[in-house]
Every structure is written in structure tokens, then in C-alpha cells.
């Protein structure tokens, strides 16, 4: 049975905070983002920053949890048997023995993280931004942030086995 690696998920959940700290820093793209979004120093000072960070961690954890199913193909094989090894036929265990750790690398997870950003985040964010009459600069600043974040998150979640030798599959 595939097991969730909550340490990998937690580490991946920190990525949007770390990338955001650099990305939205006024010395990098923060000033351009503020200008394009209509954000002011006064609006920023009036926020409950503690709650923003708490919700950011919680929501980033949910994203990292979801990234397992996008990046780790073995969940698809496990899903075919309902995720319960007790109901699996021997052919499942033979398949997992042969292919169980295939494509479990940082690079593969990063690729799927980037694909998720390109084919899910970009369209979703762009649709909302167009209706909000946001600029393309605003769209690209934010989508690029998520592309980098999801690329790294996918790499961490998928490649954790490769990095730490964590075993995911039990066999009969």
C-alpha cells in the first residue's frame, strides 16, 4: 500500500513561502507586483500577517498533498485496486515489483509540477485576471511564481524516495 510521506509534504509546503519571500521582495519583483496589483504600503500594513502565513502554510500543505497524485504515478496503479493491498491480485504486486519506483525522481516530479502550472494554474489564474482587468505583467509575475513553486514542490514530493530511500510499497 502506498503511504503518504508527510515529511516530504511538509517540506514541499514551505516552498511557496520561501520562493514568495524572494519573488515578491521589493528588490526583485515585489515593487512591480505592487504596482500591477494596486497594492499599497498602507494596505500591506493593515493586514493580519500572522493569519496570512498560517493560512498560506495550510493551503500550501494541501497543494503539496495533491502534488503526490500528480507526480507519483504509482498512485494510479494503487487506485486501480482501491488503495487496499488486501484486495490486490498477485499481478499488482508483480507490476509494482517491476515498475514500483519508476519515475520517482526529483526531475520527474519537477516536470509534472511545471506541467501543472502551465496547463492548470496559468489558465485558471489568467481567466480570473482577465475578468478583473489585470495586466499581462501581473499575470506573468504571479503565474511564474507558481510555476517555480510547483516545479520545486513536485520535485520534492516525487523525489523524496530517491533522496531518502523511503519505501512506499508493501508486497505480499
Task: Tell me briefly what this model is.
The protein has one domain (6-164). Helices cover 73% and strands 0% of the residues.
Task: Give your account of this protein's structure.
Residues 165-172 have low confidence and may be disordered. Helix 1 packs across helix 4, helix 4 (49-71) packs across helix 8 and helix 7 (106-131) runs antiparallel to helix 8 (136-164). The protein has one domain. It has 172 residues and is an all-alpha fold. It is elongated, with a radius of gyration of 19 Å. The termini are close together. The protein is 73% helix and 0% strand. The longest helix has 29 residues, at 136-164. The protein is built from eight helices and no strands. Keywords: Membrane, Methyltransferase, Transferase, Transmembrane, Transmembrane helix. One of its GO terms (biological process) is methylation. InterPro entries: DUF1761. It holds the Pfam family DUF1761.
Amino acid at each position: 500500500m502506498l503511504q503518504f510521506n508527510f515529511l516530504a509534504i511538509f517540506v514541499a509546503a514551505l516552498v511557496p513561502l520561501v520562493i514568495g519571500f524572494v519573488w515578491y521582495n521589493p528588490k526583485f519583483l515585489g515593487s512591480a507586483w505592487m504596482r500591477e496589483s494596486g497594492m499599497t504600503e498602507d494596505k500591506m500594513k493593515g493586514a493580519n500577517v500572522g493569519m496570512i502565513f498560517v493560512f498560506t502554510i495550510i493551503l500550501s500543505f494541501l497543494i503539496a498533498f495533491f502534488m503526490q497524485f500528480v507526480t507519483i504515478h504509482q498512485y494510479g496503479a494503487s487506485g486501480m485496486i482501491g488503495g487496499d493491498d488486501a484486495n490486490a491480485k498477485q499481478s499488482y504486486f508483480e507490476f509494482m515489483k517491476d515498475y514500483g519506483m519508476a519515475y520517482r525522481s526529483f526531475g520527474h516530479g519537477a516536470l509534472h509540477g511545471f506541467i501543472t502550472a502551465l496547463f492548470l494554474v496559468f489558465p485558471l489564474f489568467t481567466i480570473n485576471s482577465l475578468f478583473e482587468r489585470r495586466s499581462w505583467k501581473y499575470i506573468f509575475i504571479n503565474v511564474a511564481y507558481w510555476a517555480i513553486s510547483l516545479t520545486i514542490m513536485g520535485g520534492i514530493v516525487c523525489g523524496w524516495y530517491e533522496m531518502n530511500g523511503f519505501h512506499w510499497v508493501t508486497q505480499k
